[in-house]
Design brief:
Length: 286
Amino acid sequence: MDIKFDSISYTYNVGTPMEQRVLKDINLEITENQFLAVVGHTGSGKSTLIQHMNALLKPTNGVINIGEKKISANEKVKNLKGIRQKVGLVFQFPEYQLFEETVEKDIMFGPMNYDVSEEEARKRAHEVIKIVGLNEDILQYSPFNLSGGQMRRVAIAGILAMNPDVLILDEPTAGLDPKGQKEIMQIFENLHSKYQKTIVLVSHDMDLVSEYAQYMIVMHRGEIKLKGSPKEVFEKVDLLNKCGISLPVAAKNYQIFAEKFKLPLDSLPLTTAEFIEKVVEVVERS
């Protein structure tokens, strides 16, 4: 399923003293099985953008095509339920949305709300709990007796049980320690590579973005200021600084290393492995 934004703008509180234009002429195409990162400082328009991807918000101007469904500013659109089944949105701290007596019931809730039979919903619960790296016996536990990391995995499993084509992740590693962050991101990487899910990652962590994303956009004051592969985008250091975006740790460390040894900054490493490789090259040439 592709998602295409064609000249999308969005204004909150239209016609009131609180009117604020938060998206400005957005043109963006998210292709099937892409791993896209959306970055930008607080207030740049990231959250508003992703809420258009599953029609939680309707554009003030322009047209969005979500699969076969066309959503335009001036037309009423029916049956948005199907879109929200195919485009799953995982909010920050999704574990706060758990409410059922057992993990199994919580995971089954979403599919059954979309008219999936109880038998099929239970089957899906047993499938997705393994995808998120938990044992099936946890299905009979109360979600409120789990650790924070387990609760987050259960909440993600609840989204996966609806079998979305696209997963939108709003700061999915927030509040987790480095080990927990890596484990959660490996789940999404597996969903992308093994199950061909399209992933849209919103994150302030440029190390995660550089490691996992194939393509990224930089939002600033409601506009897309940069787009391309992480390698292409992170080379635009001056423009990133203007947008309030930092470099990955490996790139920042290499800048210090290069300055100290008077090396050219023609290409920045984005990961620890790339940083080590660059340093080894310099040492071997000396």
